[in-house]
Write a structure and sequence with these properties.
61 residues; alpha+beta; two-stranded antiparallel ribbon; two-stranded antiparallel sheet; 1 helix
Length: 61
């Protein structure tokens, strides 16, 4: 296998790694209960998804 002839500089390595960062998930507000939830998922508070009941959530919680 080929080996690099020169060491990569810290600047060049940092330029390559600028896009390797974690991003926060986009949150939406539930129109039913007002809680925040991740897009395209069932609301963990009330169990609604796109205006319909997807899962039954206990009232005690």
């Amino acid at each position: 296998m080929a080996h690099p002839k020169r060491r990569q500089s810290k600047t060049r390595t940092a330029k390559r790694r600028t896009h390797d960062k974690a991003t926060l998930p986009t949150l939406a507000v539930c129109p039913n209960c007002g809680a925040y939830y991740v897009y395209h998922t069932v609301c963990p508070t009330c169990g609604y998804y796109r205006g319909k009941v997807a899962i039954e959530v206990d009232a005690a919680e």
